[in-house]
Amino acid sequence: MARELERRLREIQDDMLILGSMAEKAIQKAMEALRSRDLALSREVVAEDEAINAKRYEIEEKCIHTMATQQPMAADLRTLVAILTITSQLERIGDHAEGIGRISLMVGHDALPRPLGEMPDMAGVGLDMLRRSLTAFVQRDADEARRLCDVDDQVDAMYTRVCAELIQHMIRNPEDITRSTYLLWTAHNLERIADRVTNICERIIFMVTGRLEEINVSRY
Amino acid sequence: MAVGFHTQRQNPIMGYEMHSGRGPQAPISEADALAGGVVVRRLDAWYGSFQALRGVDLLVAPNRITAVIGPSGCGKSTLIRCLNRMHEVVPRARVTGEVLLRGEDIYAPGVDAVVVRRRVGMVFQKPNPFPTMSVFDNVAAGLRLNGFMVRRGQTVETVEKSLRQAALWDEVKDKLSRPATELSGGQQQRLCIARALAVEPEVVLMDEPCSALDPVATLKIEELMRALAKEYTIVIVTHNMQQAARVSVHTAVMMMAEDRAGEMIEFGPTEEIFTKPRDKRTEDYITGRFG
């Protein structure tokens, strides 16, 4: 029969994976709503952030109760501490989705000032990093977590190009500055997703090895 | 772009700077243990033909609390009983190896076991005050039993000092002549600690000192241990891993080999043992997956 602590750890890990999937879906939805100018969908993304926040607090509470009642040690303790940080990062990814949703609502019924360019790719790479990081968590794979941190550089490079293009656009079209600024914010939200995944990876490495390492500090 | 291992924070507890009041967390050096603590080298202990300990090496840092943990029957109590030559009072028990107290081998020819036990005091699992004696006499008995010939006034002074050190004085100063058995379990245990302190030992060994106490009395003893560590070197055997984690600076983990002889499998700073043990058996034991 599984010990109570093991049962709780499994349950908390499952909850964390659910939270990860909620954050992932939120980003996908937010980008789709922005691209297709679907304001109802954007409003949905903004409203659904509450459920992501609630899930984060539910997981935190379970971690605290487990620490208080089961006195986890060593790898179990590191797992719970890692989950506490990871859930806050996942919740912040949800906030980035909400941010993109709000930007879409600010653009309103107007068309986007220019195509999203590499921004869907930034979202795609960030979300792929997120999925792979959660798999690395489940598989306790510190090497994969280290590899993923390097992928952040790709997102940073895309962000640099997107910003340059938008700034060029604003210089050429001063009447578009306000709406272009909205897109700059969108790109920034997307760039931060990869940073959050890097933080998640640092905690996976900690969970597996016991070492706290700051890996691949983002340029931004 | 900054890539790779930028900074490495490998702090004692989970990477955050902690000021636990427990002193430096660095692994103990043999020189420190030789100068002011206890060094155990290649210690073997037997009860008749049964080998209870095999090849134990241990460094006990001066003025620190060292915890010995491990499953039942792994030789924890035997080990600390070897540190003050209590092991040899068991018929057919014997010891080989070295136990150096401040650099002197307590098993060297010519060393008086009684003197060793005065220098290395012991507190047992169950409070064991002398039942027919008063609170005062229980502490004074520590002096008398160890051959301290002292004046009455000096005895009074030592009893008060010991009771104060054991954080018991305020609770018993008005009932020094009452039978010790009238005290609560926690008070009786602190009385036994006072009795051990009366002879001013250098090391205090504690064998499961809180196993018979409730959580409040346990916390008092733990606070007391921390206070005593300023003046004494303390070695505690405990089944309670949370207690070991709470009070000790260094932790030794013992395990039984296939022939049931106790061996030391890991020794290091407590915070590392409980967060990132090196030995898989330690990990299994402290996470409750042992066996």
Number of helices of chain A: 6
Strand order of the largest sheet of chain B: 7-8-9-4-10-11
The gross shape of chain A turns out to be elongated
Mean pLDDT of chain B: 87
Largest interface (CB < 8 Å): A-B, 25 and 26 residues
Separation of termini of chain B? 49 Å
Beta strands of chain B, count: 11
- The strand count of chain A comes to 1
What portion of residues of chain A belong to β-strands? under 5%
| Low-confidence segments of chain B | 1-24
List keywords for this structure.
heterodimer, A: mainly alpha, elongated, B: 291 residues, alpha/beta, 6-stranded mixed beta sheet, globular, disordered N terminus
Structural notes for this entry:
The complex is a heterodimer of chains A (220) and B (291). Chain A has 220 residues and is mainly alpha-helical. Chain A is built from 6 helices and 1 strand, in the order ααααααβ. Chain A has helices at 4-36, 39-70, 74-107, 119-138, 142-172, 177-209; one strand spanning 212-215. Chain A is elongated, with a radius of gyration of 19 Å. With 291 residues, chain B is of the alpha/beta class. Chain B has helices at residues 30-36, 76-82, 113-119, 135-145, 152-165, 169-172, 185-197, 215-228, 241-247, 270-275, 280-286, and strands at 5-9, 38-47, 50-60, 65-69, 93-101, 104-105, 120-123, 203-207, 233-237, 250-256, 262-269. Chain B has a 6-stranded mixed beta sheet, sandwiched between helices. A 4-stranded antiparallel beta sheet of chain B has the order 3-2-5-6. In chain B, a hairpin with a 2-residue loop joins strand 2 and strand 3 (50-60). Residues 1-24 of chain B have low confidence and may be disordered.
